[in-house]
C-alpha cells in the first residue's frame, strides 16, 4: 500500500485516538481546573468542525460530558456550548452527529434555566421542530425529548414565542401520539404540559376524542348551512 494512502488513514486513526482521550477527560473531575478545561474545550470546538464525521460526533459527545466532569462550569460556558451544539444540528452530512448533538443538548439544558439560554432559544426551538417528521426514528424521538425539556424551561421571556411554536406543531404532536415507534411516545410529557397551560384535558387520548367530536360537530354545522336542513 502506497504512502499516499497510508498517511491519510494514519492521520484519521491518530485523530480518533486523540478524541477518545478527550472524551474520557470530559467526564473527569480534573476539568474543574480552569486552564485545563479551557484548553480541552478549545480542542473540542476545533474538532467539532472536522472533515471526519466520527471525529465531529465524538467532539459533540465530549462537550455534553462536561455535565459529568464539571457540572458547575456548564452555566459559565453556556453560550460556547449552545453555539456549537445547535450548530451541529445543522450537520447535513451525518445524522449521527445530529443525534449526538441532541443528546448533548438534553444533558446541558437540564443544567440551565430559561434566562441562561438567551437568544439561542429561538434558533434551538425552530431547529428541533424540523426533526418532528424525520424518517430517522432516533432523531424524531430525541426531537420530542428536547421539545419537552424546553417546555419545562419556558417560564416568562419565551412563553409566548414557545406557545406559538407549539401551535404551529399542534397537528404533528397529536399525530405522533400514535407514532409506530414506541420511543416517540416520549412526546406525551410535552403535550400534557401544553394542555395544562390551556386548561385542556391532560389526557392525550381524551384530547384526540374531543377534537374528533369537535370536527364532526363543525362538519354537521357546515352541512346544515349548505343544505338548510337540520342534521
UniProtKB/TrEMBL annotation:
InterPro entries: ARM-like, ARM-type_fold, HEAT_Maestro, Maestro_heat-like_prot. Residues 41-186 form the Maestro/Maestro-like HEAT-repeats domain. It holds the Pfam family HEAT_MROH2B_C. The keyword Transmembrane applies. Keywords: Membrane, Transmembrane, Transmembrane helix. The chain crosses the membrane at residues 6-26. GO terms for cellular component: cytoplasm. Gene3D superfamilies: Leucine-rich Repeat Variant. This is Maestro/Maestro-like HEAT-repeats domain-containing protein. It comes from Terrapene triunguis.
